[in-house]
Amino acid sequence: MKINPPLLLQINRSYLKLVKGDNFPRCYFQRWFGADFSHTETPTTKSNIDASSAVPISSSSMESNYSQKMAADSTWVSKIILYSFCQSSCSWRIRFALNLKGLSYEYRAVNIDKGEQFTSEFEKLNPLHYVPVLVDGDVVISDSYAILLYLEENYCQRPLLPVEPQLRALNLQAASIVSSSMQPLHMLSVLRYMEERVGPEEKQSWAKFHIQKGFSALEKLLTGSAGKYATGKEVYMADVFLAPQIAVATKRFNIDMSQFPTLSRIYDSCKALPEFQASSPERQPDAAL
């Protein structure tokens, strides 16, 4: 796209006016009009951090090899706090996303098996008593979908939504299927309720039915767009939601993924990523508790 000098000057002036008033995320101008906008002198906020200045994950004292290498040249320290449970697939999504974006965070374990989500302290963060909860300064966000959108808008390095409208919508749709039509129907509190009312066998049947229904829809939805990952060659939000869901489905509910070849291929690609491996349940500080 060629932009003549007068138009470029007009765009730049509009950009300065917007970002100085904090009315528009800086990252969208950078992504639409190129990296030149990242060098414009504007007030520094946490939404203006680029990938070169970010410290990758450090879950408690644990750091992966790839994060150590990136941290060597970093001067910026994140204040992000993640309330997480190692076995929670919703928390896993956020850990995966934070790793992909190279954002450090403080890991605070909430053991939902022991009912720690019902403490008065945690209730102030999320009255629904669910993990994950992300705290970024004065901002407190629960619900993994809302957290991912917040991170995407405020931390622009390593975008998790593509610029192209069709692919962007496809990622949001796939993420919504996982977060709205699959995971809530087999979450721990729901399965415990089902077991109390109808027994353990019906509990498993219920979970498998809804998981397979969701995977069937996702297989059809993504078959035309999938490459190495859900919507092509890059990891995006659809992958962030999909990979932990498949891991939980296979390990906890014995779902046969051979009937979903596209999803299986996407999962195999995600499993090879160091960011995904570092976000896995067994790699978290509370895994041995």
Give me the secondary-structure topology.
Elements: H1 5-20, H2 26-33, H3 65-71, E1 80-84, H4 89-101, E2 106-109, H5 120-125, E3 133-136, E4 139-142, H6 144-154, H7 165-182, H8 188-198, H9 200-222, H10 237-253, H11 261-271, H12 274-279
Parallel strand pairs: 1-2
Antiparallel strand pairs: 1-3, 3-4
Overview of this protein structure:
The protein is mostly helical and 289 residues long. It has a single domain, classed as Glutathione S-transferase Yfyf (Class Pi), Chain A, domain 2. Helix content is 51%, strand content 6%. The chain is built from 12 helices and 4 strands, in the order αααβαβαββααααααα. The protein has helices at residues 5-20, 26-33, 65-71, 89-101, 120-125, 144-154, 165-182, 188-198, 200-222, 237-253, 261-271, 274-279; strands at 80-84, 106-109, 133-136, 139-142. A hairpin with a 2-residue loop joins strand 3 (133-136) and strand 4 (139-142).
